[in-house]
Design brief:
Structural class of chain B: alpha/beta
Strand order of the largest sheet of chain B: 1-2-3-7-6
Radius of gyration of chain B: 19 Å
Structural class of chain A: alpha/beta
Shape of chain A: globular
Oligomer: heterodimer
Largest sheet of chain B: 5 strands, parallel
Distance between the termini of chain B: 48 Å
Strand content of chain A: 15-25%
Strand content of chain B: 5-15%
Strand order of the largest sheet of chain A: 3-2-4-5-7-6-12
Distance between the termini of chain A: 45 Å
Order of helices and strands of chain B: HHEHHHEHEEEHEHEHHH
Number of helices of chain B: 11
């Protein structure tokens, strides 16, 4: 075991997969030399050269399209989209091409490609550099989505994503890059499509992913101080969703809060919440609660951004509200 | 190309007829309601498809667009399976999931027709990047229309291919109309080809209705591209005999213009050249063979079973 940063965990996964499989190559804006806007790929061009750590012009849609074409011919591109906000420019190649080729063209086509991108706010970058857009992708069949919350899961899930023969959206988080955590020595993977129960509890289930997992842990700590035992689940993969693990927990606790950093309306939590309701409404002792960003763009000024984005106090408040229901 | 083999030319002529016959048969099936959905006929553009693919080898690749039946057949695609796809059958190229504008056959290097205007440009570029990384000898030819030259993907992809010196031929079929909009309304320039200069590429305008002009231009381009000189842009002037799609009555262009272009029919042009070297009986035989192959394709499509809905949800991903 070693304690490393989330950013290092991603870099290590990239480096180890580049060493493991010569078909793997990196594609993105300013990723060689500069190391990408968040310096995740720093040092890799020195080791693997500019052919495998390939800088691109600022052309997001065609960067993803180039990845599709290269993957069709047997390579395994790992694309960096500098900010998740910029992925909107590549929606055509993702939705109309990458997501559909296997379905339309059948077994002759495999698209082993990963799109890495940092989402989330809390850095004061303003409305077009702070969004959490996972919800756009969960309604699109054909793209797997993972959003790790810890260095351990970041490394293990990125390795799984690179080894997967399907397009995988790998959602990083800007505020997590500087987070430290233990990772095992040597090669390991974390399976895509499997949630993680971070803390067991009997009174209420707190479901989230990415940065909000840590807000849920803080809320669980506060609840524990009052003698309420919250089960904390990190969904980790948004598609496929591990509903078995979520349902098992909610059957036990009968109360659930779902937290995300995306906008409230039509969000990931709306989907998870409704699926829980569809299959478990007899087990619910209280309404399902959502904690999400307010339905306005994420503002730049700290006081405004803090107002719009949810944190552990919102999770705690939601938990208290449904714990009060009989 | 100087030493043209007579038999080879006959086979290219037959392939052009195959495409024409395929599209005309489709028109009738749509008109009488035997197949539904939509189609974009390439009638009138057979020389670009067959001429370009005649200059490529089996290990080369093409990407195509919404008007892609001709490209598919020209690259060696099976008309039976394409017809079955139009009929929505299990034996279709995409098992009935794609329809007219979504078929691929990697075994012949056909990387897909494409329902999104300009969607194939980055995919062709990515395939060319893979070829370069894999140090292979193949080239990619990207078919796109004049309309696609105004998509962002055109500029993004052509630029990337140029800075990385990728083995890709950007082949624009300029049929003068982006759906209903005349070329001059969408472009402040005389030709798409002018844009090649902006990416430091070679660019040329050719007669897209002359099989030989197309084949020779692509052949020369493929040689340069294969040698590592980077991409190029070929603009083939052509004209679709029919509307943009099956529901288009062509109110935006004149009957006089259409009649003038019909005098420059690629198939008639090819036949005139063939008559100099081949016997009329050989030409008639090629014509009968093409019609017969389409009869077979229709029979195959009609006899084929519909697709099974079972397993549909499990086929989105490689498991």
């Amino acid at each position: 075991m070693a304690e490393i940063f989330y950013s290092q965990a991603i870099r290590d996964a990239l480096r180890e997969e580049l060493l493991r499989d010569e078909r793997v190559f990196l594609l993105g804006e300013d990723i060689a030399g500069y190391g990408g806007a968040f310096r995740i790929t720093r040092g890799l061009v020195e080791e693997f050269g500019p052919e495998r750590i390939r800088n691109t012009p600022i052309s997001e849609n065609s960067i993803v399209g180039v990845g599709v074409g290269a993957a069709m011919l047997g390579l395994r591109p790992v694309i960096e989209i500098m900010f998740m906000d910029f992925i909107t420019l590549a929606i055509d190649q993702l939705f109309n091409h990458a997501a559909k080729f296997r379905f339309m063209f059948g077994e002759q086509v495999r698209l082993p490609m990963v799109i890495r991108t940092p989402g989330g706010g809390r850095r004061g970058y303003g409305p077009t550099h702070s969004q959490s857009l996972e919800t756009l992708f969960i309604s699109m069949p054909g793209i797997k989505i993972v959003a790790p919350a810890t260095p351990h899961d970041a490394k293990g899930l990125l390795k799984s994503a690179i080894r997967d023969d399907n397009p995988v959206l790998f959602v990083e988080n800007k505020t997590l890059y500087g987070m430290r955590g233990e990772v095992p020595d040597g090669d390991y993977t974390v399976p895509i499509g499997k949630a993680s129960v971070l803390r067991e509890g009997r009174d209420i289930t707190l479901i989230s992913y990415s940065q909000m997992v840590h807000e849920c842990i803080k809320a669980a700590d506060a609840l524990a101080a009052d003698g309420v035992f919250a089960e904390v689940i990190d969904v980790r993969s948004l598609n496929p969703l591990d509903m078995d693990t979520l349902c098992e927990s909610v059957q036990k606790t009968g109360r659930v809060v779902i937290a995300e950093e995306g906008h409230r309306t039509g969000g990931v939590s709306a989907e998870i919440g409704f699926r829980l309701f569809e299959s478990l409404h007899y087990y619910l002792d209280a309404p399902i609660k959502r904690v999400a960003a307010k339905d306005v763009p994420v503002p730049a000024a700290p006081v405004l951004e803090k107002y719009v984005l949810p944190d552990w106090t919102n999770v705690l408040q939601a938990a208290h509200e449904i714990l009060a229901e009989n | 190309m100087s030493n043209d083999d007579g038999l080879e030319l006959l086979s290219f002529y037959r392939r052009m007829l195959l495409i024409r016959e395929f599209e005309q048969r489709l028109d009738r099936f749509f008109a009488d309601g035997r197949i539904h959905g939509t189609t974009h006929s390439c009638t009138g553009q057979e020389a670009t498809a067959v001429g370009a693919c005649a200059a490529l080898s089996a290990s080369d690749y093409v990407t195509s667009n919404h008007r892609g039946h001709g490209h598919f057949i020209a690259k060696g695609g099976d008309p039976k399976r394409l017809m079955a796809e139009l009929f929505g059958k299990a034996t279709g190229v995409s098992g009935g999931r794609g329809g007219s504008q979504h078929v691929a056959d990697l075994s012949i290097g056909f990387l897909g027709s494409n329902g999104i205007t300009g969607g194939g440009l980055p995919i062709a570029t990515g395939a060319a990047l893979a070829i370069k990384i894999q140090k292979r000898d193949s080239v990619v030819l990207c078919f796109f229309g004049d309309g696609a030259a105004n998509q962002g993907t055109f500029h993004e992809s052509v630029n990337m291919a140029a800075i990385w010196k990728l083995p890709v031929i950007f082949f624009c079929e300029n049929n003068l109309y982006a759906m209903s909009t005349p070329f001059a309304c969408n472009f402040p320039i005389q030709n798409v080809c002018v844009r090649a200069a902006g990416y430091a590429m070679a660019g040329e305008v050719i007669d897209g209705n002359d099989f030989f002009a197309v084949r020779d231009a692509v052949s020369a381009a493929a040689g340069r591209v294969r040698a590592g000189n980077g991409p190029c842009l070929i603009e083939a002037l052509t004209y679709r005999h029919c509307g943009h799609s099956k529901s288009d009555g062509c109110e935006y262009r004149t009957r006089d213009e259409e009649a003038a272009w019909r005098l420059n029919d690629p198939i008639a042009n090819m036949k005139r050249r063939l008559l100099q070297t081949a016997a009329p009986a050989e030409i008639e035989q090629a014509e009968r063979e093409a019609a017969g192959m389409i009869d077979e394709a229709v029979a195959f499509a009609l006899q084929s079973p519909p697709p099974d809905t079972a397993g549909l949800e499990d086929s989105i991903w490689v498991s």
